[in-house]
Amino acid sequence: MKLSKQMILSFVSLVIVSILIISSVSNIMINRSFKFYLTEEREDKFKRIYKEINTSYIDNDFKLDSMELKHLSLSNDIVITIKDLNGKTKYSSKRMGMGRMYGNMHNNSMQNNDNFIEKSYTLYNDNNPIAYLLIGYVDNAYLTDSANLFKNALFRSFIISGFITILIGLIISIILSKRLTKPLIMIKNTANEIKEGNLNASSNIDTDIKEIIELSNSINFLGKTLKNQEDIRKRYALDISHELRTPLTTLQTHLEAIIDGVWDPTKEHLEILMSETRRLKILIDNLKDSFTQEEYKVNLNKSTFNISTVVKDTIIAFLPIYNSKNYNIKYDIEDNIEVFMDKDKIKQIINNLLSNGVRYLGENGEVFIELKRSQTNLVLTIKDNGIGIKKENLPFIFDRFFRVDSSRNKETGGTGLGLSIVESIVKAHNGEINVESLENEFTKFTIVFPL
């Protein structure tokens, strides 16, 4: 069943049950209150009749006008009887002459009723009892035509109110269900579009319900994330294709030239082929490493070594490369820092960062390397004064194949895998790597290893 139908059905059912409960409780309480009110009114009426008869009886020398009693009896739908102190009947509305047949029929019908009750009152003269007044009535006589009319009108009002309430509840439930289900349907359709491959789909809903807004934002975020991943995958494919095509094309061209006799298989030409072969091997190895980041967690060959010496030796190995381009390397290495890490992987980190540095330095290029130890951490900092990185590119520099220079110039562009591999090694050692950069001013990598 659709959510909208379930909501409408549930809401209307709740309204109906609520109306039934309220109506039942209200009807019981009103009947009790109405009965109590009418009973009290009847008692007040009997007291007034008693006082009237007691006064008249004394004022008329202990005599009563039978016609007045008859009228009083018929007008109040009661039977009036007066007995002396010995219990002998002196007056009774059941025996009075005028209208005898009607009176007898009325009184007999009342007395034959199972709920006929007589209430006794004592007539006094100066606080001395002089006779007894008996007022007979049917117990449910308070339910007069007017009372029944009122109760029926009240019952009808409950029914009409119930129908109106159910109708209003139905309208409200339809409005609420549409308000809730319409954005949910839009979100569902967006999710289906994403499932079908339309990663640009997004749900733009108009609602003030916080949970639905959060759900819509989550679906939109999911779509954008999948779109970004799809774009990265396509870029990976293009970059892999390009990076593999370049050395392969060089190899193919040189080999065809040698086969066709255009070039002689001299040492110089074979060195070119070997250089491209080595480049291709490095590319494939980097590619393999970049897609197997998890292996750094299981294949680290850790040992205890002096990282200060390793960093210095690696820097010294790069000095000729930097000096040939008139670049400088400066460093501040704290001596004799013993660590338990993968020595080769640490060398690879420094190699990759220094290789990146030499590509992006300009005139008066300089790289500064610092290694310091605190009580709990080992901090390696590599900062250069090169071309820097644009602010919008900073979040992506550790992505596989991402390259700041999209032109893929051999002089500046690498494989786009170096920093991805560096990040993997750092994380495998439970470390953190951060980058700061300002375009045309500097780039600074900070690596923190726990000791």
Please provide a written account of the structure.
It is found in: Cell membrane. It catalyses: ATP + protein L-histidine = ADP + protein N-phospho-L-histidine. It is a multi-pass membrane protein. Pfam families: HATPase_c, HisKA. Its EC number is 2.7.13.3. The chain is an alpha+beta fold and 451 residues long. It has three domains: 150 residues, Beta-Lactamase, CATH 3.30.450; 67 residues, Helix Hairpins; 151 residues, Histidine kinase-like ATPase, C-terminal domain (Heat Shock Protein 90). It is built from ten helices and eleven strands. Strands 6-8-9-11-10 form a five-stranded mixed β-sheet, with helices on one face. Strands 2-1-4-3 form a four-stranded antiparallel β-sheet. It has a two-stranded antiparallel ribbon with strand order 5-7. Helix 1 runs antiparallel to helix 4, helix 5 runs antiparallel to helix 6 and helix 9 runs antiparallel to helix 10. The radius of gyration is 53 Å and the shape is rod-shaped. The chain starts with a helix and ends with a strand. About 5% of the residues have low confidence.
